[in-house]
Task: inverse folding
């Protein structure tokens, strides 16, 4: 049975069928087809959740092995293991709206995220110092735009001058939105091209097959 699903034509047929089952209801109002598409989406959600549970089991098993072998950094692995299962147990028993469940997230997770981004700021400043070198006109414009945006983000700037905020809003509403939409359109086109190539059998690696 497993060899059957290793065949490229079988996998492409299944993918094409599922693709059509989900995409057709967006263009045609067919009640039965909508029901099948919704059921397929629920199945995918269940499979995704199951994959998350499996990954949690694999990570927990890896952490336990590191703790038993006293590998490098094993106290952190043990702490992670305890926190994960403790928060999960509290959430299942007392509910996600309970204070004991919210406290670790707000006191540990949010604080850890703040520390992480604070440390990453130094690397961003270092990279920016190397990138912000006005070697030509384009680099000069990039440097000026970055300086104005950072000035507008500083709280003390509003106490003395308001024009950086106006320039930041202008750059965000024009060039910023334009670049974001170009990026989104590029991602959408890339996804469509990848999907078509997968359905044509030219991207077997996407299905876990060898070319």
Result:
């Amino acid at each position: 049975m497993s060899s059957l699903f290793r065949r490229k034509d079988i996998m492409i047929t299944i993918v094409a069928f599922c693709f059509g089952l989900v995409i057709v209801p967006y263009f045609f109002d067919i009640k039965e087809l909508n029901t099948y598409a919704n059921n397929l989406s629920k199945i995918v959600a269940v499979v995704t959740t199951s994959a998350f549970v499996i990954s949690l089991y694999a990570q927990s098993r890896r952490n336990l092995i590191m703790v038993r072998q006293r590998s490098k950094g094993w106290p952190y692995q043990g702490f992670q293991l305890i926190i994960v299962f403790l928060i999960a147990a509290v959430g299942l028993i007392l509910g996600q709206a309970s204070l004991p469940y919210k406290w670790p997230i707000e006191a540990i997770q949010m604080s850890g995220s703040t520390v992480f981004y604070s440390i990453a700021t130094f690397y961003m400043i270092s990279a920016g110092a190397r990138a912000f070198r006005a070697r030509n006109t384009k680099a000069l414009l990039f440097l000026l735009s970055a300086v104005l945006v950072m000035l507008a983000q500083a709280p003390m700037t509003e106490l003395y001058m308001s024009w950086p905020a106006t320039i930041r809003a202008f750059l965000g509403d024009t060039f910023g939105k334009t670049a974001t939409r170009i990026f989104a359109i590029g991602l959408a086109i890339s996804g469509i091209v990848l999907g078509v190539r997968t359905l044509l059998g030219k991207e077997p690696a996407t299905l876990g097959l060898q070319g």
